[in-house]
Amino acid sequence: MPKSHFFPAGEALSDFAEAIWDADFDDARSARALTIKVLPTTSPVLIVHYRAAMTAAHRPRYKRTANGMQTKAMTLRPSGPLGVVLVRLKAEEACRVLGCDLADMTDASVELSDIFGDREASLLEEMLAEAENAEARVARMRQFLRERAATNRFDPVVHRAICALKQDPAVSMKDLASCLDVGERSLQRRFKTLTGVSPKQFARVARMEKVVAARLRGSDWADVAYATGYNDQAHLINDFRSLAGAPPDTFFRGTTAAEYRGWNAELAASDFYNTFMT
Predict the structure, then answer these.
(1) What is the pLDDT of residues 52-81, one digit of tens each?
(2) Which residue of 28, 48, 131, 133 is 20 to 30 Å from 198, comparing CA positions?
(3) d(CA 94, CA 110)
(4) pTM, to two decimals
């Protein structure tokens, strides 16, 4: 079975990162049988596969990448033994590490060699491959990011907006701007400058995250719809289908296979609860 370990970002990374996940599955045949479903997320993610590459519809070879905010579901498949370290970044601070315009990264992936240079990206992959265990790999990833983090670009208005949208994604932009004591146009501009998306785009995906989290806690769909601000259950189903590519019951039914139930349960309890093995 796959080995999966979750770690806090650590004090040195806490300003711009949320969590780190190390996944290790060195049985090539079993790994190739995996299908990995990733639902939309508000958090950019930095990913290094130190064994075989992944394949995806949008990228035939998916090995050392940074993903911006995702507004669509992705399907990934290992091409061989799986070994990967993922860092979940904070939407408003990811630019400190990625050093590029996040607007160009929405629903896209950028090669780490294009961000850090091929030598540095290759060296990071080699260090992760040579590390003896998950703790050592995470320590090396933390060091790599700590040494490359740029000056803090913290914007208190954007930070408060993100917190408010995660708490209540159904809030109107007018009410949000009023609560933050800022004009709507200023909020839109400042928000997109740091995150690469508009507050409305962010809110839609944040609501999807709340739907997934509530369902994984065992709530029925009617309660989930009410708790997340949908007009009714049909509205929730249509929005979920639009973002995930399948109705919610169909999607979750495919994630309960006995052989991956334990791993999916661990993921459900982690910061990477938008990822499922099938």
Answers:
(1) 999 987 677 889 999 999 999 999 999 999
(2) 48
(3) 13
(4) 0.93
